[in-house]
Amino acid sequence: MMSLNPILIVHLFYVWGIDFMGPFPMSFGYTYILVGVDYVSKWVKAVPCKYNDHRVVIKFLKENIFSRFGVPKAIISDGGTHFCNKPFETLLAKYGVKHKVATPYHPQTSGQIELANREIKNILMKVSMAKRAISLWNWNTRLDGAIKKLNMDLSKAGLKRFLDLNELEELRNDAYLNSKIAKERLKRWHDQWMT
């Protein structure tokens, strides 16, 4: 008899997508933005960077992801040389993190990070256009505000996500139990007709 497959359980901050944005016009020496997005909560973390190399990525992971949210189970990135190199793979192996590379033929894999990149760019452009004194050359001074707006904006995140973030574990457990009950009912129905 064939068993039904269990649902995949992914916890908060277990799967992160990372990507570089840029190059932008130089702003106080910074030309890139390194963005990380949690695939469950959609939480965005971004930092301005002077370079887009593996040293920046490793520092970002250690200081902004591992130390604040814990070590994830998987990291999804594109196939850029800043993500696919020996020091990066060594760090991930040291902490037991799986590295998933999104291919250009299946862009949905990194869809969450691309959506965050687009939203960050839109917010920075709106701030730059709204205040003529603030131009795109000083985008890095507005990056923290853009990320805060992206993470806390009720119209983007949704009121339910904003209010129920602490109850996410309970909601996931309820969904798992409901799925288990439904599978047991389906099995009973199937067994009834097969006997």
Beta-strand percent range:
5-15%
CATH top-level class: Alpha Beta
Number of strands: 5
Spatial arrangement of strands, main beta sheet: 3-2-1-4-5
Q: Label the structural class.
A: alpha/beta
Oligomer: single chain
Number of helices: 7
Distance between the termini: 13 Å
Mean pLDDT: 82
Largest sheet: 5 strands, mixed
Q: Give the CATH architecture.
A: 2-Layer Sandwich
Description:
- Helix content is 48%, strand content 14%.
- Helix 3 crosses helix 4.
- It has helices at 54-69, 86-95, 111-130, 143-152, 154-157, 159-164, 168-194; strands spanning 15-21, 32-38, 44-49, 74-77, 98-101.
- Strands 3-2-1-4-5 form a five-stranded mixed sheet, with helices on both faces.
- The protein has 195 residues and is an alpha/beta fold.
- It contains seven helices and five strands; from the N terminus they run βββαβαβααααα.
- It has a single domain (15-152), classed as Nucleotidyltransferase, domain 5 (2-Layer Sandwich), CATH 3.30.420.10.
- The two termini are 13 Å apart.
Write a concise synopsis of the structure shown.
It is built from 7 helices and 5 strands. The protein is an alpha/beta fold and 195 residues long. A 5-stranded mixed β-sheet has the order 3-2-1-4-5, with helices on both faces.
